[in-house]
Design goal:
Strand content: under 5%
Structural class: mainly alpha
Number of domains: 2
Helix content: 55-70%
């Protein structure tokens, strides 16, 4: 095998691996699949949210505003907030009776 053929083979293998990686990232983003390493990121984002709540105390805060502040969808933000803190944002533990 010549040096040229060897370089072509390496380039072909690299492009194949790159295309697989890109495809996986696209599928994960479409299915909203987050790798386990995001646990640290989620914790930071919740801490950032709590700080934002303190800074804007007294203002009407929406889930959309809080989720947007940490670049999450509203549904993912609610799941993460509840999972990390054990409470659902905007809901109390009191039941309502008519």
């Amino acid at each position: 095998m010549t040096e040229y053929e060897s370089a072509l083979l390496v380039r072909h293998m690299f492009l194949g691996a790159l295309s697989v990686t890109i495809t996986h990232q696209i599928v994960r983003s479409l299915l909203d699949i987050r790798p386990q390493t995001d646990v640290i990121t989620d914790k930071f984002e919740i801490e950032k949210t709590i700080e934002y709540m303190y800074q804007h105390f007294g203002e009407k805060l929406t889930i959309g505003t809080l989720a947007g502040n940490v670049n999450m969808s509203e549904s993912h933000y609610i799941r993460t907030f509840k999972k990390k803190l054990g409470i659902a944002y905007g809901f109390s533990n009191k039941s309502t009776h008519k």
